[in-house]
Structures are given as structure tokens and as C-alpha cells.
Amino acid sequence: MSVVLRPVHADDKPLFISREGDVPVWVSPEHRAGEQPMHVAIPTEILLREDAQGDYLKVVTQNGAHGWVEAAKVRPYEENDSKIPPEGFYIQRDLTALIIGDNIDRETLERKNGENF
User: Among candidates 22, 27, 21, which has minimal Cα distance to 59?
Assistant: First the structure.
């Protein structure tokens, strides 16, 4: 099951993003020293807040996992955090090489043209 989060949200369940670096997501806010997190959110991952308890926020990750993050490690998500402009973007490229026989996949083509967000 895949969960897609969009930067449109209700005021009572705001979106959050890392302040800096990876953010460990714990099974509970009372995790132990040496315990491994259930998930590590990368700096660009958007987290949906469900609840709060002390210094922790209960969040849903982009892959649908429910867990707890330290509130000090995240900040509210703002629309300007996205690398994709709100109006979208236009890609113009010559696909002649692909048609003739340069067999490369979509991700390679996007990396080659600097389009991979």
C-alpha cells in the first residue's frame, strides 16, 4: 500500500519536514537508548502529524507507517520547500536518439537532462 501526501492539509493535521538531516521515526515516544528506529525519514520526506505527546509528534510517513518523531527535529512544511514550482514545469527535449535506438530508461533520461526532482 502506498500513501501519497500532498501539501494541501487540514489545519488540525499539518505537514512537517526535517529541520536538518535524517529524522528517526520511533514505534513509541518512550523508545530506549540503542533501540533502532522503525523508519528513517530523509530530509525531503513529508510527514503528516496525527497527534502530539510531550516532545514527540505522532506522524504518518510517506510509505504509510505510523510512528513518533522528536518535535525538535522537524518543522512545518511550507509550499516553497518543494523543488517543483507550484505552476508545474515544462519539459522540452528531442527524443530522436531514443527513437533511433539509444535505449535508456526514463530515470536515466531525467538524470541526463537534470529533470529528476
Answer: 27
Torsion of the alpha carbons at 93, 99, 103 and 105, rounded to the nearest 10: 40
pTM beyond cutoff 0.70? no
Which residue range forms the structural domain that includes residue 56? 15-77
CA distance 86 to 16: 18
pLDDT digits (tens, 9 = 90+) for 12-69: 568 899 989 999 999 998 888 888 999 999 988 889 999 999 999 999 988 888 999 9
Classify residue 50: in a domain, yes or no.
Answer: yes
Question: What length does the chain have?
Answer: 117
Backbone angles phi, psi at 81, to 5 degrees: -75, -20
